[in-house]
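Our preliminary data section would be incomplete without showing what the modeling component actually yields. Below, a chain of 296 amino acids is followed by its predicted structure, encoded as tokens that our downstream tools consume directly.
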Amino acid sequence: MVNEVVHENSREEALWDAIVVPDQVKAQLRNQSLLSLQLRPTMPFVATALHGLCTLYGPPGTGKTTLARGLPAQIARHVSGREVRRIEINPHGVMSAEHGQSQQRVSELLAEHVPALAADGMPTVVVLDEVESMAVARSAASLAANPADVHRATDAVLTALDHNADQHPHLFFVATSNFTSALDEAFLSRSDAAILVPLPDRVALRAIIGDTLLKLGTRYPALRDLARSPGLGRIAELADGMDGRRARKVVFEALARRLDTVLDPGRLTENDLAAAIQATLNQSPTGTEEDPDVAA
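Predicted structure:
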């Protein structure tokens, strides 16, 4: 578990800036969290029905977790004290194979431990990464394949969210999921917003690949020209269907294809990038479609 305080104008802002997504994705996440932290301490739950929960969903590699981690730095400038606590939870580490343990661990973590860490009242963002491992869809789960423990753990998540919504309005949870069809319907119903983080389009792919080259260009100046080359548009077209993480990695895959570009990355060419992209796409399964279970 990560527990740290993020200040206004911290280097953490680089996390947020590094993710290339439509502007409205970042704006909705920032605005939803600020609205929740502003209204919930002063208005009863029965008036707002706000749980202080936002779910980021979409294909792997699109930046959901990085956006969640970068959120505190974005809202710190707008809150009293200019600092926000960030708590990160890995749900995989909470679930247990021992009978009865998952429900108990989830309940203690979300309803007791997290509120205790934030007992000073500081605005707190709690990141639940890959939350589908913790809030399993009970309607689609078989008790034969999914022990009753897993069902009870989902119940514990929902109970904790209800408790925190009422008792701890300074907490704001950001859950990420690659597979919202695996999430419990009642969990999704408690989300104040479900935000699609989509695969990058060609404009975004060009920006991601160009940004990677520019960063490398601080050490290998020749790559700055490649980053600004009109031919990068063709490279982005070839990369259509890639997620943002893979688009960054493909630059390094291109460098690794030839010994001379390993020894001197400044010798990288558009053809190297094109060959690496083609090789990567040939090895990849069919691209992931947008999740049909949650409206964008």
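Confidence is low (pLDDT under 50) at residues 286-296. The beta strands are 2-7, 53-57, 83-89, 124-128, 171-177, 193-196. Preliminary results of this kind motivate Aim 1 of the renewal.
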